Amino acid sequence: MAKLSPSLLSADFGRLAEQIKEVETGGADLIHLDVMDGHFVPNISLGIPVIKSLRKVTKLPFDVHLMIEKPERYIEDFVNAGADIITVHQEVSPHLHRTIQNIKSYDVKAGIAINPSTPLENIKYVLNDIDMVLVMTVNPGFGGQSLIKEMKHKIIELKRMIKDKGLNVEIEVDGGVKLENVREVIDWGADVIVAGSAIFKAEDVIKQTKKFKDLINR
């Protein structure tokens, strides 16, 4: 059964604690926290102190997506802030295996994110060492973008690679997932669905979260 990880990037930053409670009530499985540094991606978002303060609000796992340069410098800080899953980008991690081992040394799950133009070839030698691959279906940096349909083939191929290796690695999909296409994305092979504006821009966040969960569980 696929999981739902609402992205706080699209939430009301003045009501983050309340909005976490809303998606939790709606049945969310995780909370997706996008960390941006204004260098790797052209935006700045949540940081360590905010994540630490939000950790007190919910017991849902924190799915922390680091869109930052030199993520290896901050792994311990994000663990201490309450991260349960830490995902770093292949594109900024020249010593990817070392970074993965560093994450796992803190007894949290390790994920690798890849941008739309990044080939699967770049991560095939670390698949054995990770818990999740985050496939970006938009170019990272901003919420509210449309899903790049060509990513369908990447997700299907990644699912095949994982199955052929007999691994227990989840595929997370982030970017442009809406009620209208969530079932299609799951059929491609997604195990974890990230939805931001499609949830938090709705008139009723709780009801919208429930609609996503109903479709995911169908």
From TrEMBL:
Alphabetized UniProt keyword annotations: Carbohydrate metabolism, Cobalt, Isomerase, Manganese, Metal-binding, Zinc
Positions of the catalytic residues: 34, 174
Pathway listed: Carbohydrate degradation
Molecular functions per Gene Ontology: D-ribulose-phosphate 3-epimerase activity; metal ion binding
Enzyme Commission (EC) number: 5.1.3.1
Binding-site positions, substrate: 7, 65, 141-144, 174-176, 196-197
Catalytic activity reported: D-ribulose 5-phosphate = D-xylulose 5-phosphate
SUPFAM superfamilies in alphabetical order: Ribulose-phoshate binding barrel
Keyword Transport appears in the UniProt entry: no
Co-factor requirement: Zn(2+); Fe(2+); Co(2+); Mn(2+)
Annotated a divalent metal cation binding sites: 32, 34, 65, 174
Superkingdom of the source species: Bacteria
Pfam families in the record: Ribul_P_3_epim (PF00834)
One GO cellular component term noted in the UniProt record for this chain: cytoplasm
PANTHER family referenced in this protein's UniProt entry, alphabetically: RIBULOSE-5-PHOSPHATE-3-EPIMERASE
Known role: Catalyzes the reversible epimerization of D-ribulose 5-phosphate to D-xylulose 5-phosphate.
HAMAP family per UniProt: RPE (MF_02227)
Family: Belongs to the ribulose-phosphate 3-epimerase family.
Name of the protein: Ribulose-phosphate 3-epimerase
Lineage of source species: Bacteria, Bacillati, Bacillota, Tissierellia, Tissierellales
